[in-house]
Every structure is written in structure tokens, then in C-alpha cells.
Design a protein that fits this description.
The protein is of the alpha/beta class and about 350 residues long. It is about 25% helix and about 25% strand. The protein is built from 10 helices and 16 strands. The protein has helices spanning about 15-20, 25-30, 75-90, 110-115, 120-135, 150-155, 225-230, 245-265, 310-320, 330-335, and strands at about 60-65, 95-100, 135-145, 155-165, 170-175, 180-185, 185-190, 205, 210-215, 235-240, 265-270, 275, 280-285, 285-290, 295-300, 305-310. A hairpin with a 5-residue loop joins β4 and β5. α3 packs parallel to α5 (about 120-135). The longest helix has 17 residues, at about 75-90. The N and C termini lie far apart (about 40 Å).
């Protein structure tokens, strides 16, 4: 049995529940005989013997996935996120992932534009200080950014910002696929009313956990993006999200597992959860999926965090046993998932 999400410290059951380490369906998630200090979010199914990893799990990099319920109150949102990031640091994580719209979720496009900031604004400065204080990397999954063209366009970017442990911005990715959809029972969503699509993908970035390919939410519906990132060297794909209550149960886990299987990457998806205000709610279910497609960590229903070990040796074994990228036929389907230039 492979355990990929755990703490090396001892916690009481109420504390673990509060942090989101386990769900209310406790009996179905615990492995029999598992000691409390290795309590896992989810016990993964046994993997094929040929691909079992010999690496000690205690030597593998630990990542934290944070799940929050953002509101229009930016300072309260920061307080909540900072508490989870500090807890992730105490648990030994080298990198913490925050969801799309970690900064705020507004009631309408006008409020979204009013609350937005440039990357050099006060809020990002608070997060750079937090990264330095905690000594870990931060994936800030979707910041409402006033870009250099703000004065001309009066629109923003949905910007995924990656900070290193010194608080420096090492990568920014601006969401390229905007969510303009109309779903029965959920009402129309027009991200393009306030947001400009990003012009390009970002090459994968080396971090203490592995090479990370940056994406945001709706991007997960476009496998070409994930294939391009994987062929450019990504080992971990991130999809920080704010999925709704209609698409969440139907598509969330299916899409994340598909992206992991087809790219043979880890997939990390930090999510918004619960009711943000009277006009909007999110599905939650933040998770980590391994390159075999197994969900190895999952948050409970409310705000909290889950942890997962990233085993790049195991990733390489999966790719060696099933070398799908060597079997691709670009002569048949052109530049689908063509590597980044």
C-alpha cells in the first residue's frame, strides 16, 4: 500500500478534521492498523508491483494543497490563506498551492475590477513576505492582476504567480482559456467581461518538488495545453480552480485524473469551496493525482489543507513502462500538444 499524504507529527482527531486531512466518511478512508501519526487523506490503491517505488517516503518532497472559501474581503482572505500556509510550513511542506481567486471572489465584474491590483501592489507584497517568513514556495493560483495595459483596457488578467522561498516572483502565467459558458441551473459565466486572455504559456519551472507547469481552472479542459507542458519537461501540472456546483460533481475528478494519465505527471489542484456570497458557491474537493491516475490526497468539504509526497522516481518508472510520448504520431495529427518553443 502506497501512502502519499500524511504528517510526521501526531495530531488529535479533531485537529486533523479541522485542517481538512480527513473527511467525514472517516471509516472509508482510513487504512486498517494505520497509526495516527501516519493518518492519510486517502489510501491509494496498490500499484502494479513492477512500478512500486523503493524510495523512502520520508525522503520525498512534501507539498500542501490549500482549500479556501474566498469572499470580497481581501484582508480576511489573506488571513485565512496565511494560516494554512504557516500550517503547511510547520508540517514540513516545501511548496504550498493556493486556488484560483485566492485573493477574492467578487459579486460582479465591476467589483472584480475595483478590487484588483497590480503585481507590485500591497497584497502580493504580503505574500512575498509570507513566503520568506515560512521559507517555502507558494503557488498563488489566480490573482486578479491589473496589467501594464490597465489604463487602456480597463480589464485585468487572471494571473498564476509562483514565488520561491525568498519571496521572489519566479514565474507568472496568465490564464489563456477564459470561462464563458451558460449552464442550465447555474446561470451564465462571462469571465471575458472583466478579463483578458493571456498571450502565451509559461515554460515549466524547477522547484524543490519538481518541474511545475502552470495552468488555471478552465485550462484543464484543453489537453493540448497539458501535453505541451509535459513535452516541455513538466513533472507536476497545477490547476488551481473555482469549479461550480454543476460542473464539479460531473467533471472535476475525471478531468484531473485524465490530465495526469495522459501526461504521466502529478496533477495538483487547489480549489475554492463553499459559498462565497449570495451569488456564488464552489465545489471544493482539492486533490493531488499521481502519474498513474490515482488520487493520493484529497481535502474534506470545508476550508483546510491536504498533503502529498512527490515521487519523481515513480514518475520516471511510469513513463518507462508505458512510453506514450515515444508512441505519438504527429504525422497524423499535426501539432496537437506541440512542445513549447
Amino acid at each position: 500500500m502506497v501512502l502519499a499524504a500524511f504528517s510526521c507529527r501526531t495530531y488529535s482527531l479533531p485537529h486533523l478534521l479541522r485542517l481538512g486531512f480527513i473527511t467525514n466518511q472517516l471509516q472509508s478512508l482510513l487504512c486498517p492498523g494505520l497509526r495516527i501519526r501516519r493518518l492519510s487523506v486517502l489510501c491509494a490503491q496498490p500499484r502494479p508491483r513492477a512500478m512500486a517505488s523503493s524510495s523512502s517516503s520520508w525522503e520525498l518532497p512534501l507539498v500542501a494543497v490549500c482549500q479556501v472559501t474566498s469572499t470580497p474581503d481581501k484582508q480576511q482572505n489573506f488571513k485565512t490563506c496565511a494560516e494554512l500556509v504557516r500550517e503547511a510550513a510547520r508540517l514540513g511542506a516545501c511548496l504550498a498551492f493556493l486556488p484560483e481567486a485566492f485573493d477574492f471572489i467578487a459579486r460582479d465584474p465591476a467589483e472584480t475590477l475595483r478590487l484588483s491590483e497590480p503585481l507590485g501592489g500591497n497584497l502580493l507584497q504580503e505574500y512575498t513576505q509570507l513566503a520568506r517568513e515560512c521559507g517555502l514556495w507558494l503557488s498563488l493560483g489566480g490573482f486578479h492582476e491589473r496589467g501594464q495595459d490597465w489604463e487602456q483596457t480597463q480589464k485585468i488578467y487572471n494571473c498564476h504567480v509562483l514565488l520561491n522561498s525568498k519571496g521572489s516572483v519566479v514565474a507568472t502565467y496568465r490564464k489563456t482559456h477564459l470561462c464563458d459558458v451558460e449552464l442550465p441551473g447555474q446561470g451564465p459565466m462571462r469571465e471575458s467581461n472583466s478579463t483578458i486572455p493571456g498571450p502565451s504559456l509559461e515554460s515549466p519551472v524547477s522547484t524543490p518538488a519538481g518541474k511545475i507547469g502552470l495552468a488555471i481552472c478552465y485550462d484543464m479542459r484543453f489537453p493540448e495545453l497539458s501535453l505541451a507542458l509535459a513535452q516541455a519537461g513538466a513533472e507536476i501540472l497545477t490547476y488551481p480552480s473555482a469549479f461550480g456546483s454543476i460542473t464539479g460533481p460531473a467533471h472535476w475528478e475525471v478531468l484531473l485524473r485524465a490530465r495526469a494519465i495522459e501526461t504521466q505527471c502529478y496533477v495538483v489542484a487547489a480549489a475554492q469551496c463553499g459559498r462565497h456570497h449570495e451569488k456564488r458557491a464552489s465545489y471544493g474537493h482539492s486533490m493531488v493525482v499521481d502519474p498513474w491516475g490515482t488520487v493520493v490526497a484529497r481535502c474534506s468539504e470545508g476550508p483546510g489543507l491536504c498533503l502529498a509526497r512527490i515521487n519523481l522516481n515513480y514518475l520516471q518508472q511510469v513513463r518507462q513502462h508505458m512510453p506514450v510520448f515515444q508512441h505519438r504520431r504527429p504525422d497524423l495529427y499535426g501539432n496537437l500538444g506541440h512542445p513549447l518553443s
